[in-house]
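Sample entry (205 residues):
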Amino acid sequence: MDKPGQVLDLHRFTVKAKRWLVGAAIGIWLLLLFVVIPETWKLLDGAEMLGAAATSGTPSAAAGDAAYTKLYTAAYLGSISPAIVAVVIYLLWRTRHAMEERFPTLLLLSLVGLATCQAAFVTAAWGDQYTGAAVGEELESAGISLWGRAAMERGWYVGYAALVAGAAVLSFSFSRQPRHQMWWVLGLMPLAVGVPWMFLAGPYL
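Predicted structure, serialized as tokens:
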């Protein structure tokens, strides 16, 4: 068995169990896509600590779009939160276990669940070539205010860039010597999260 196969050890699950897992993943994906994510958007739109875009409306000329920097940041972090949690969980486990050690079943199921969540978060903003329904339209159909929609749309899309950067960091880090991999991840991952947020913020910084 190759090393990835040894670590994942999918043979631990019976065919019936695998079918149940696929069904559960699809159910979680649908629940997030059609219930949890729209409700999260509404919560962000009306949150006082994020600027209450739903009720505050047009910001003052002095504040400009920067009035909703917190909302942009919350949407950005929200869009990549499953990936962040997955990396943290993996790193916490990895600090005490060898690279080739088999994932415990609970850890594997947790990572699969978080990957499903992240897939739903990405799908929520995925454009449709026939309907044109991307995150802006989805936010509008969820009843998000104009200013809240603008801030959250940018934050959600910037999250795409962070996911790509994070994947590149993990790919690079895991190509290093095993004893140095953790340090590469810990050193580069904050950059993968922070750089897109800063340089793609547009008027929100």
